[in-house]
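Lab notebook: predicted structure, single chain.

Context: the supervisor wants predicted structures on file for every construct in the current expression panel, including those that have not yet been purified. This is the next one on the list. No modifications to the sequence; it matches the entry in the shared construct table.
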Amino acid sequence: MRKFYTTEGNRSSKKQKEAYPVLALCENCVGQYTVISEGERTYDECVKCGADD
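Prediction complete. Output recorded below exactly as produced.
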């Protein structure tokens, strides 16, 4: 199962969703991002590797 994570993106962007995007990530891929906060569980597939178990 994946979770939504608020991650650090393009901090120079003036748009909130580009500076701190919320991504659905699996446990294997979350370590490749700088995580700001952890959200709820989701059945969405991982945006990095596409895992959908």
